[in-house]
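Quick log. Single chain, no ligands specified.
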Amino acid sequence: MKQNLLSLLVCQSCNGTYSLAADGQSLVCDGCEESIALHDGIPLFTEPAGEIVPIPKRERAPKIGTTWRRANWVFFTEQLEALPQDALVLDVGSGRGDFQELLAERNSISLDVYPYPECDIVCDLTKKQPFRPGSVDAIVLSNVLEHVFEPWALFQSFSEMLTSRGKLFVVVPFLLKVHQAPIDYLRYTHFALEKLAQEHDFELESLEGFYDPEALIGEGLRNVRWHVLRDVPPLRRYLARIVLSIQFFFNRMLGALLQGRRSSTPESERSPAPLGYQIVFVKK
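-> predicted structure:
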C-alpha cells in the first residue's frame, strides 16, 4: 500500500480515519470501525462488478498504439509537466498502468474498479467517494468516461475531492467502435461534456477534438472486412476483398498526402467529426 494513501482517506459514515488492522488483512475506521477488505494490499472500497472482463497489460508509449492513443500520451505529458512537482495526481480508471511512466516521478495514486496489480485502490466513484474533500490536486481520466453509466455521479465525486482550482484532465472517444463490451455505454459531444462539467462546479480551460481522416475511414473499412463480409456469398466476397485492398491502399495514400492528423477546437471545424476529445476542466 502506498505510504501516503491512508492520510488521504476518510470514512464516509463518520468522517473517521482508517488504520491498518492488526492482521494486515483490512483497513478499519478509527471511529465507527467500518472494515475495508484488502486484496493483495489493495483496499477494496467497492466490489468489482461481475461483468468486468480484466484487460491485458499493453505497452504504452509516445509512438506506440493508434494515433488516438499517441495523441493522448502527448496531451497528458504536456498537462502533467505544467503541474507543480508536489501536486497529488489521481489516475482514475488506471487499468494496467498505461501512464505509469509519466506518473513514476509524481506524487500519484492509481484507482480502478478492478484490483489490477498496478492500482493502489479499488473504488467505483459513482457509488462511493473515500477521499478527503479537497485532497487531490489533479485527476487523469483517460478513455474511461464512456464506460461510466452514471457520469454525473462521477463528476460529483471529482468536485468533492479536488482542491479549488484543481485540474481535471479528460480524454474521451467520440467516433470510436464499441470496446470492452459490455461496459461501453456512452459517446459525448463537446456540448454534453461542457454541460456535465458546468453542472458540477467546473469551468472549461481548453477543449480540442483530435482529427484523423485516415483512421476514421480505416475504421469503416476494417468493419467491412471483419464483419460485413462474413454474410456475403463467396464470389462477391472474393471480389469485395480485392476492392477493399485497393481502398486500404488509397486510404493510406490519402493520409500521406493530407497529413490530416490534428487537434483543434470544434468551433474551428466546418463539420466536426473527431476521433475523440481532449479536455482540461478547472474546479471553481
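The radius of gyration is 21 Å.
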